[in-house]
Amino acid sequence: MQLAESRGLILFSRDYKEKDKLVKIFTESAGKQMFYVKGIHKKNNPLTSVLQNFTEATFIMNLKTDGLSFLNGAKDVKPLIMIQQDIFLAGYSTYLLNLVDAAIEDKIYDPHLYQFLSLCLNLINDGYDAEIITNIFEVQVLQRFGVAPIFDHCVICGKTSGRFDYSSKFGGVLCEDHFAMDEHRYHADPTAMHFIRLFNQVDLTKVKTIKVNAEVKKEIRRVIDLFYEEYVGIHLKSKKFIDDMHKWQNLMKPDS
């Protein structure tokens, strides 16, 4: 058993027996780990307030090579308050956590993915457009699923500017001059493809704002869904939830 400290984000938790919990945490230094937390429902347990959804902290851990690890404590706790209090932000954030859980195996060291996830969740918590942050995350995490579409240039001629569409046949974007080479291309709106190409390479640490109108957002969503259906093939409950949110979110808005 190895004693360690690491920054971490809670992926999910569930009750185990009457007083205990199983908590899965994505740690910066040891990948995803499942922890057994004994007596979490007892009064005055210091970990009770820490092990809430959408919480980032430095966890003090006993890591086991096989089986469940154990949590000894936590410090520098940062609850993502805005996400915790908003069902819509929580929906997008849960989806990001679920994508990470699906994208890499447990106990795989991946500090870059941890830092990217942390950045995206903190941006959502700080009021950035959760839908666009989610799209950027989806596009950039494709490589963790072994998918590497060519977005930066036309796969036929190398052109980097103009109107583009995506071709499964060629595994990347086609410029307008070569649309005819694949009649089964995505037929995506050029503005949406522009943003997806941008999302693939954008550095979120340097972005102040990204504004996208509602119609283009819908087309971005449609195209990214095509990527995931064709190349990844996962169907997460949290993804269905955010899809359904658009149908009923207006019902929750107060009458003017």
From TrEMBL:
The keyword Kinase is annotated on this UniProt entry: no
Keywords: DNA damage, DNA recombination, DNA repair
Keyword set includes Cytoplasm: no
Pfam families in the cross-refs: RecO_C, RecO_N
Domain of life assignment: Bacteria
GO BP of this protein: DNA recombination; double-strand break repair
A GO CC annotation given for this chain: bacterial nucleoid
Residues annotated as domain DNA replication/recombination mediator RecO N-terminal: 1-78
Function: Involved in DNA repair and RecF pathway recombination.
HAMAP family: RecO
Protein family membership: Belongs to the RecO family.
Protein name (database record): DNA repair protein RecO
